[in-house]
Amino acid sequence: MFGMWWLVVTLTFSAGTALAIPSRLVTFPLTLELGDDRTLSLTREDDGISYTLNEKTSARSTSAKVLIGGAETKSGITPTEYSARYCETEFDKCVELAGEDFNITFEIDASRALYTFSYVTLTSDSPDAELGVSIELEENVQWYGGPEARRQIWPVQDSVWNDTSYVTKELSQSIAMSIAEPFWVSSKGDFFYFPSATSLFLDQNNRYEDTIYLYTKNKSPFRSPDHAQLEYATALTSDPRSAYEVASDRFFPRPTSIPHETIIAKPIWSTWARYKSKINESLVRDYAKEIVDHGFEYSQLEIDDFWEDCYGTLNFDASDNKFPDIRKLTDDLHELGFMVSLWVTPFVNLECETVYNEALSKGYFVRDVDGEVNATWWQGNSAGVVDFTNEKAAKWYTARLENLKSKAGIDYYKFDAGETSWLPTPANLTGDVERSPNIFTEEYVRAVAVFGNGSEVRSGHRTQDLDIMVRMLDKDSDWTLDNGLPTLINTLLVLNIAGYGFVLPDMVGGNGVKGSSLVDTKLPSKELYIRWLQANTFMPVIQYSIVPWDYDEETVKICLKYTELHERYAPTIIEAMNATVATGAPVNPPVWWVDPLNTEAHKIKDQYMLGEVVVVAPVIVEGATSRDIFLPTGSWRDGTTLNLYKGPTWIFNYSAPLDVLPYFVEEEYWKAHKSAASQTTFSLTAVLASAVLVAAIKLF
User: Are 270 and 395 within one domain?
Assistant: First the structure.
């Protein structure tokens, strides 16, 4: 038998007249008046309590079911009787429903005119209890948010998750979530956010049809505390934008500055997709020369895998056929105007004996609860993972990187991995046990962010406040929703709705992976490559690896055109990023951001915006030379034909041959920006100077 347990549900509300409910048995359904404008309706079901919070004047409502399962009551059955009473808490008043071995307490914050905010806590003495909330996916209601995924769809209500632990992970082609912020928002204007440390699992459209079920269960990969607890916040607002703004203001830490402006304006060039792990000094020099000779702009040249003498030593392989003089190489790249970034990971392979043994002896590797340190990753079958929840281990790692940066002339780093799935499980991390294992990702990202705003990470957990770029998971070079081109847009939107606006899209054309090889490259088709760049044009950063001149002159010409278009709109991107700093607004929001009550806008899944002034509608279907386009409320100038459209409206069968990216600029912004757009010189100085003109216009 499990120990005695209880359930506490807390939804916060403002002071007012106490509810005169004596402690007495109640019958269901039960409706409670919460002031003049709000009611709470409760229905008892076999597996828990369903509740609906209603606002009378606005006709807004939000509903969920608190599920009670996984633990036995004294009698072994779900209670048939509840009593209700007015109760005292840290708030002014509350309503408590008491069952046989548990109680449910509702507190509601109705102090704001524009929305009702609620907070819910479920607690059980039994560590084996399963406590959850079930969110019904109603017809014609769209949902947004959830984790980054390989099969990324938007809106997300049709996603399928099978009892998946809600932690940062990369386990397979189907299960990966390097960003796993527990936030969902609906087109109706309500949201659910899980702010507390908890052993959270996600099950969607699996156990229960048309349902998002979020629950706590103390099992691997979580460390089991001596109780079970689930907390979530919810709010009832008028539209999805309002819901996002309420949640962002309360729960998403806001950045204080933005990424490196040169990197925003000019492309990163990475060695990875083109060369994979076959890199050396000669190839890097040739790569840089090709970029310059073909007239492309550049910010960073990124040296990717495999430059070390052993994975994890953080020492360049100085042999004659690898990198015999790394400082001379970086000095020469700097002379050409490149910044140099370097790919690194938190792993140290077993065969790197000196470094591995040092970290092992000092206790710098993550251990599981049995004391084991062994971890496996894509370039090592036996390795240790540096424990960033251990302050001494984090300082040891960053000190070695600082030494490498100084000695080798490195400007920034590309920090790979960071997901909790690489750790020995369940991981015995330092700090709050209830925050394990996601605390590892947060501490890793915060530790490496000290290397500056030209660095990048691919994982994150409650790290929206950092000024570094967050790279999408590696994309596959195909046209499908299974991690192909369409997911470039969907992932951009999911990350922005999770509060991560400084998104670094994956390399133009995808990774070009050939089978399972980390050595060979399969060139994407010319059409896919060009459409990929077009889709990327109004995103924060362009990242090349496979190069346009691997195709033909037409490809080079088209790629120059859209690389330069991106640079011309760099001031707009910078303004959007500064808006994120100021207000938390997404850099690349969905189309409904400027038309939040429009049900057509709610459904759009293959377009995105830059701030509030550009609507982007890339072609992402193989062989297509036209597409339908939705324009939200406002006046929109076609960036290609210069035609003016009044939204909301549809443009059907818009002609978009291979060299055309459909995009539309808000008319007032267009008037201010068109002089900059007509320039033929695309220096960063000129680009940033145009921001002075733009600043006079209300962009966001």
Answer: yes
